Amino acid sequence: MTHTIPIQFDGETLHARPGETLAATLIAHGVQQFRTTVSGQPRGVFCGMGVCQDCLVEIDGVANRRACMTKIEKPITVQRGAHARPLPPVTASGSGSGSYVAAPEPEVREPELLVIGAGPGGLSAALFAQRAGAKVTVLDERSQAGGQYYKQLGVSVPEQGVAPPDAQHRRGAALIEAARKAGVEIIHDALVWGAFEPKEFIATVRGRSIRFRPAACIVATGAYERGWQVPGWTLPGVMTTGAAQTLWRTSRRLPAKRVLIAGNGPLNLQLAAELLSGGANVAAVVEAAPRPGLAALGSLVTMSLAAPGLVAEGIGYSRMTKRNGVRIINDTVIEAIEKNGSGLSVTLAHVSGEKHAKRIDVDVVCLGYGFEPANELLRALGCTHDFDTHRRQLATRRDDTGLTSVAGVYALGDCTGLGGAKAALAEGSVVGAAVAASLGHTLGGSLTGERDRAAAELAKQRRFQQALWAVYASPLNAPKERCGDTVICRCEEVTFGELDAALDEGLSTVGAIKRRTRIGMGRCQGRYCAPVLDEIVCERFGRSRDEMSGFAPRVPVKPVSIAELAGHGSDS
């Protein structure tokens, strides 16, 4: 018999699998609305990785807990999140009111090498540096290492009757185990919210604030998916491709039975194949790029030569979708999403702007329109960035060893500019070797050979990525139509109409517009609206985007409670 954990959700008993997230449990029971906003609008899971802050619920009386980051390990009582719900008065003892206790001094740790992020790149770098003789500590916000690419199953396979780990799971598990066996210290549930020059960090680890002052550091914080600001993009049931993949790969839960996947890039095809294997009905994969033709032949050959294994995986995903009769609709994007009874109704349009005549009705819409580097810590440290006009994002300026413009601060992977997980994996060995050498450790002959092979592999993976981007190139950077009542800032519910009014007043900087409209002042701290706002402002006033044109980095880079700032956070 499958063991489950009973939880209470708004007075109803639901049964959760031990180890899955609360978000997965709720979605598996048909719950899509997790909270309401200040204007009373419903919200649910969007990013699935703790960035958007839209899945906030109240757990055992504690408000503003992220359902996507909360693992079910014991019975809990959950209520939907509600804006401005009265909070219980708090003192040092946790009850009453009017008492204040001085904040204790945060614990200070001084590791030799601090790695932030336990994805493929961070783990690879930590493992190599540890083997070279460095003492390495890794901080990761999640309860399991692996990052977004090597997401690990949180549920038990035999007892709970779920699909076993696949090859990608197993490769990630092997890397995590190798790092642990080598002696790498991996600290989970560590929210790094502050970075201070020259290289000091502060993190909340299970409710406690800890300062880290390493001799050297590697930032490997990855990326998050871009928003797609069309009518209806904030509705419950609209989530990112990554959120849907996280539900399946960590909890073996489908986002819904009937799903539409739309965006730009190969991750959408992989998600379609994975959801099909779990029994979902994928209505279509809507791809902004045109169908590859003869012009893409050179890029396809380059990809096959550089990374034949990845090409084989892609062919497998394509065959899976074809076998199941899934339509691939190229040169097309989502134009609008509407609530339709218990589901969603989607309007499509050609990239040229011509609308599709037929709507598609589904339960869930998955959006995957590219990524933004999670470079907030690097920017807070003062690392120099350059604007990549092709990818429309900031790229961290580094040398061949991953060293940034700040001494002792290294960076790798997608937080520096997108390169893919396999590139980050190879780059980790290169950067780990360089940092170990900078700390005075001597590489043996075998490690030198491994570093050189990793450098060669990195070059191949970068050739693969350049060719892949050429195949998936689309002329569309953002939705063509900007309806006045469409939300640009999902946290503060600011619309394009309000933005246009601010622009018409003559406000010409993102800072001034932020103060006038509150765009970017919400919990996600501008991660979804800031790039769009910056593009609009720069286009309107004839400027070029650069590292100074958007919002300045601010501490905390992620929301942290006042209790945690004061050193009185809960470790629950």
Considering the chains and any ligands shown, give keywords for the structure.
single chain; 572 residues; alpha/beta; Ubiquitin-like (UB roll); FAD/NAD(P)-binding domain; 4 domains; 7-stranded mixed sheet; 5-stranded parallel sheet; 30 strands
Structure, described:
This protein is α/β, with parallel strands linked by helices. The chain has four domains: 5-87, Roll (Ubiquitin-like (UB roll)), CATH 3.10.20.440; 107-224 and 372-443, FAD/NAD(P)-binding domain; 233-369, FAD/NAD(P)-binding domain (3-Layer(bba) Sandwich); 487-540, Arc Repressor Mutant, subunit A (Orthogonal Bundle). Helix content is 30%, strand content 23%. The chain has 15 helices and 30 strands. Strands 1, 2, 3, 4, 5, 6 and 7 form a seven-stranded mixed β-sheet that branches. A five-stranded parallel β-sheet has the order 11-10-9-15-28, covered by helices on one side. The protein has a five-stranded parallel β-sheet with strand order 17-24-18-19-20. Helix 6 (267-277) links the parallel strand 18 and strand 19 (281-287). The longest helix is centred in the C-terminal third of the chain and has 27 residues, at 445-471. The chain starts with a strand and ends in a 7-residue tail after the last helix. Residues 93-98 have low confidence and may be disordered.
